[in-house]
Design brief:
Elements: E1 2-7, E2 10-15, E3 43-48, H1 63-72, E4 77-79, E5 85-87, E6 90-95, E7 101-106, H2 120-131, E8 166-170, E9 173-177, H3 185-188, H4 205-210, E10 218-224, E11 228-233, E12 247-252, H5 256-265, E13 270-271, E14 289-294, E15 297-302, H6 312-324, H7 328-335, E16 341-342, H8 368-381, E17 389-391, H9 399-413, E18 419-421, H10 425-429, E19 437-442, H11 453-456
Domain Solute-binding protein family: 89-407
GO molecular function: peptide transmembrane transporter activity
InterPro entries: Peptide/Ni-bd (IPR030678), SBP_5 (IPR039424), SBP_5_dom (IPR000914)
Length: 465
């Protein structure tokens, strides 16, 4: 179940100086430089948290890892700031008549930063490796629409098997046969799981994930666990994203408040979100240069479908009751100071196809009386017992709105007496999460795509009834 709580439509970036990491039209300046001057050797410091997995693209599960993988690798396509699709490694992606098959032509001269050529089989092998359950890649389910996916779902099968729906008639041509027509496939390949891997990765995938070799605008330099990850500009990069600095160092912070304090003190160049405690004042802070624009992200609360009291008809009633207990407009206004909007869909308003009226969407409306009625009907099936814990990452920005959610549900229902429960990351990574938890999705594609099965498998969609 996903009780969509708040849809984040404002992606706020703070800068102490006008600094540019990659691909933005603004310029990188240093003290003493005039506006418009670019320091092409500047090392930009950016906030982050420790990634919950290594940096093998098909194993990346969180925004922290996504930030890094998408700078280290180029895929077939990327997206402009305006959402338009831009070919990166692909020269063309051509569908057949009903979009059930695609022919992908690669640009000539593609190479990884270690000099290894990138060809059609590079992609066929990387996608097959990710899709193969024997390889334990968390992003594998996104390949389920490619023919032959089910044949690779044997955990004891060959780890080197290739998806039957992929073929490479020559070094620059990749043919893809899908299980069904899919006109969104050219956008889907922009997902991080579709990024290519060099041959060295398969010799020791765990070691590769800690010291990745990519083909993107930056090269990996170093990783000090729980402290920082440093990337440097790849001088040999010839892709569509233009680098205007010498590198980026991602520093780990235990809280956004600590990162914000470093921005104010001049010890951090870029902060990609504003702590809730500073939302009312950051625009007027003289030492902070603030930028705000709509962003493709949303947050929701996911309740695993295997929890006691959250299965079958009883579970559907309890999910609806909890959803009706949340005053999303109040959370958006009082907690987020109007920087977000209440969710009406499982995506962000900036994404094509976003809807304000989904079937079953009435459960997103706050109604304390209806919530209590639904909870009472669930109790008639099986009386509630136990404590409902909500897990969230301590190093993220979820605590304030989770606090508001907990208070709202408790005041409306009296029980299940929900409680905050911090340990979170490992449970998600090993697919062992046993508590409701916030789900934050940063959408890379500008069009609506199906959620990966791995996400839907963690719960039942509340909005379907």
């Amino acid at each position: 179940m996903r009780a969509a709580i708040v849809s984040a439509v404002s992606s706020v970036t703070l800068l102490t100086l006008a600094l540019t990491a990659c691909g933005s039209p603004s310029s990188s300046t240093r003290p003493g430089q005039s506006a418009g001057q670019v320091d092409s050797n500047a090392i930009i410091t950016v906030n982050n948290v420790e990634p919950s997995s290594d940096l093998t693209p098909s194993k990346v599960t969180d925004t922290a890892g996504w930030k890094l993988a998408t700078l280290l690798f180029d895929g077939l396509v990327t997206f402009g700031d305006d959402g338009r699709l831009i070919y990166a490694n692909a020269d063309s992606i051509t569908p057949n008549q009903d979009a059930s098959a695609y022919t992908i032509k690669l640009k000539p001269g593609l190479r990884f930063s270690n000099g290894e050529p990138i060809g059609a089989m590079t992609y066929a092998r990387a996608w097959s490796f990710a899709a193969n359950v024997a390889n334990g890649q968390t992003g594998g389910s996104i390949f389920s629409t490619i023919a032959g996916y089910e044949d690779l779902q044997n955990p004891h099968g060959s780890k080197d098997a290739i998806l039957s729906g992929l073929s490479a008639p020559d070094a620059s041509t990749l043919r893809v046969q899908l299980n069904a027509p899919d006109s969104s496939f050219p956008y889907k390949v922009g997902d991080v799981s579709f990024l290519p891997l060099p041959s060295v990765a398969y010799k020791d995938i765990a070691a590769f994930g800690r010291h990745p070799i990519g083909n993107g605008p930056y090269r990996f330099k170093s990783w000090t666990p729980n402290q920082s990850i440093s990337l440097v500009k790849d001088p040999g990069y010839r892709g569509p994203r233009k680098v205007r600095n010498g590198g980026v160092t991602f520093r780990d912070y235990q809280s956004l408040e600590a990162a914000y304090a470093d921005v104010e003190a001049g010890n951090l160049d870029v902060l990609d979100a504003v702590p809730v405690s500073s939302l009312a004042t950051y625009r007027s802070e003289p030492r902070v240069q603030a930028f705000t624009k709509p962003g493709p992200a949303f947050k929701s609360l996911t309740i695993p479908s295997n929890l006691p009291h959250f299965q079958g008809a009883e579970g559907a009633l309890r999910r609806a009751a909890i959803s009706r207990s949340i005053d999303r407009a109040e959370v958006a206004s009082k907690v987020f100071r109007g920087s977000v909007t209440p969710a009406t869909d499982f995506t962000a308003p900036t994404i094509a196809g976003y809807s304000k009226r989904l079937n079953g969407g009435e459960v997103l409306s706050y109604d304390a009386g209806k919530a209590r009625e639904l909870w009472k009907r669930a109790d008639a099936i099986s009386p509630w017992s136990g404590v409902l814990e909500i897990a969230y990452p301590a190093d993220g920005s979820d605590k304030d709105w989770v606090d508001a959610l907990v208070n709202s549900v408790h005041q409306t229902l009296g029980h299940p007496s929900p409680q905050q429960h911090v340990p979170y990351r490992q449970g998600v990574q090993d697919r062992g999460q046993r508590t409701p938890d916030p789900l934050g999705v940063q959408l890379r594609s500008p069009v609506r795509l199906p959620l990966p099965g791995g996400l839907l498998g963690r719960g039942v969609r509340l909005l379907s009834g």
